[in-house]
Description:
The protein is an alpha/beta fold. The chain is built from six helices and nine strands, in the order E-H-E-H-E-H-E-H-E-E-E-H-E-H-E.
Amino acid sequence: MQGDQSILDLGCALGQDVRQMIADGVPDHLVYAVELEAGFIELGYDLFLDRDTLKSHFISADVLEKSGPCAKLAGWDGKIDIIYNGRFLHCFGRDDGLLVAIRMTKLLNNRPGSVIVGECLGGKLDREVVAPVGKLHLYSVESFKEMWAQAAEKTKVEFKVDVQVQPAGQAQMAHFGEDVVSLVFWVERS
């Protein structure tokens, strides 16, 4: 990060990555976080004992905005320089994953070089799987790039997409099969 760049942790859970960013030197007032379950944000404050000192911006919001636009989230549109997306995109079916990519594009600063970075579970072959939490989508490298091409077409924004394949953990392979991998990605606005 440089200067006054803002960073958003989308799907922040307890906010542990938010706190790690701050420990690594990111000024807390430049860190934003979104989590669907407000209880997770509250548990994070209780766990880290920083409710009165942390200056980061947390909101509970449905990034899919299924019940209509979220005014709090819309207030951040075009203001985020870096979106961190750790183990989040595979939590949606393919159609909803595209909607999430489009929503992230709206949040992203309009400057070339603004980025969306992260990691998601993937597969050697593109497929949907059923998990205890619902339907998940395991992207292949090709289908992940295709999703971003579709998001770019719908939003009229150009992206450079880099995806690296890394081994998944034993627990993921045991649950989803031997072909599951981890996709580490960098999606940069051109």
